[in-house]
Design goal:
The protein contains eight helices and 20 strands. The protein is of the alpha/beta class. It has two domains: 260 residues, no CATH class; 62 residues, no CATH class. The strands form two sheets. Strands 1, 4, 5, 7, 9, 11, 13, 15, 17 and 19 form a ten-stranded mixed sheet that branches. Strands 3-2-6-8-10-12-14-16-18-20 form a ten-stranded mixed sheet, covered by helices on one side. A hairpin with a 2-residue loop joins strand 2 and strand 3. The radius of gyration is 21 Å and the shape is globular. 47% of the residues are buried.
């Protein structure tokens, strides 16, 4: 990295000393590690598909001040809504509802202030964006669900950005589920058309027989950069269901790192990515089976239009003692133009012998015969294409249990298709 970038990020970390109890040494350590490695380049295998050029050219400043952007309507009914504006919690725009009666909700600052040793539970990460999140985090939520408490409707965490060009927000959320508890979290990211950077990390500990549904909807502004991580640890008989939908931004990347620590756990990580002209969406997963009798499923569906790029790197690791593991990966991509790209790199690393693991990847175009079949029965070409796209992504959205949320997501996919048809000036 250039001297200017090094000095800029080091100065930002120093300016945050004292604002979160117990974090100063952690910030210093994370920043030191970040400065040693810098942002990854194309020679880094795990980042080969992510367009990181903007990060090498300029630094992003911590944004301050309240947004003037309108707060969008929720995706569906919720039990509570927490709004973060330019990386800071905004109580006025949030709606805590009655959920506080059942679960513990506190800002990150209060979490550490009550017990500084909780800082040691933070996952610092080893890659540059995770390290920078650790070094520069200022705000976030800590949600603790007591044992045997089930929250029916989702909790929405909305991130809103309009902090001007070269602004950045580094937010950290911590989710803790007691035994037998359940909760659904919708993370949603929106913003204006300035060239900002959202860098988010969510870490979750899901104990025995608990269940976390995690729905992520990335619809950032047209020039935004979006990097996000989910670090999830699974106890015995627990379940993690993640559905990631990437729609907005100039460049986005989502990493899901799931560790199955005890027998009987289930992990599902699904995703949909739609890349229009010039957009790049990268989805990266690593599911580690460290204990046996567990199941992991991954279903990813992507679509790329002219000069759009979608990428999927999915790795499943099965440890020697993780016998009777069942793991499946499925990646399918559609490309609408010869200049579009769809990259796939599924990986299996199996050290156990009593397992059933599979992966598959296909890239193709919409089926002309299917379009002809539909149009021959009086369906116009635009609607025919829309029907085929809806059917194509449906499997990846199957685990979204809330009908109103799923309808909202399908509506966004339909709108994306209408824009593609309008841009081409044809329904064929």
């Amino acid at each position: 990295m250039t001297k200017q970038l090094i000095e800029a990020y080091a100065s930002q970390a120093e300016s945050l000393h004292g604002i979160l109890a117990g974090m100063d040494d952690v910030r210093t350590s994370a920043m030191s590690s970040f400065l040693e490695q810098g942002f990854p380049g194309t020679k880094n295998e795990e980042w080969r598909y992510s367009d990181m050029r903007a990060f090498h050219k300029k630094h992003f400043e911590l944004v301050s001040g309240k947004s003037g952007i309108a707060i969008p309507e929720p995706l569906g009914d919720y039990c509570a809504r927490f709004v973060f504006i330019n990386g800071r919690y905004d109580e006025e725009s949030s709606d805590i509802g009655q959920v506080w009666k059942d679960i513990s909700i506190r800002p990150l600052a209060n979490h550490f202030m009550a017990n500084e040793s909780r800082v040691d539970e933070l996952i610092k990460g080893s890659d540059s964006v995770s390290l920078l999140n650790t070094a520069l985090m200022r705000d976030g939520l800590v949600l603790s669900i007591p044992s045997n408490v089930g929250i029916g409707r989702p909790i929405e965490i909305l991130h809103v950005m309009d902090g001007s060009d070269n602004a950045a927000a580094h937010v950290r959320h911590v989710i803790e589920l007691g035994e037998g508890s359940s909760v659904s979290i919708i993370e949603r990211f929106v913003g204006d058309d300035s060239a900002y950077w959202t860098n988010s990390v969510l870490q979750a500990r899901i104990t025995e027989n608990a269940k976390l549904r995690h729905i992520r909807v990335q619809e950032e502004g047209a020039n935004a950069l979006h990097t996000a991580k989910a670090y999830v640890n699974l106890g015995g008989g627990s379940e993690y269901i993640c559905t990631n939908v990437a729609l907005g931004g100039a460049m986005s990347r989502f990493d899901a790192n799931v560790r199955i620590l005890m027998d009987g756990a289930q992990a599902t990580v699904n995703g949909v990515a739609l890349a229009a002209t010039g957009q790049s969406h990268d989805m990266h997963t690593h599911v580690s089976h460290l204990s046996g009798n567990a199941v992991s499923e991954q279903v990813f569906r992507t679509i790329a239009d002219s000069r759009g790029t979608t990428s999927f790197q999915g790795k499943v690791t099965v440890a020697e003692d993780a016998q009777r593991t069942l793991a499946n990966q499925s990646f399918k991509a559609l490309i609408f133009d010869k200049t579009a790209q769809a990259n796939a790199k599924p990986e299996l690393e199996i050290l156990a012998d009593d397992v059933k693991c599979s992966h598959g990847a296909t890239v193709g175009q919409l089926d002309d015969k299917a379009i002809f079949y539909l149009t021959s029965r009086g369906i116009d070409p635009e609607t025919a294409r829309q029907m085929l796209v809806s059917a194509f992504v449906a499997e990846a959205l199957e685990k979204v249990d809330f009908d109103d949320v799923k309808t909202s997501l399908m509506g966004r996919i339909a709108s994306w298709m209408l824009e593609r048809n309008a841009d081409k000036g044809t329904g064929g």
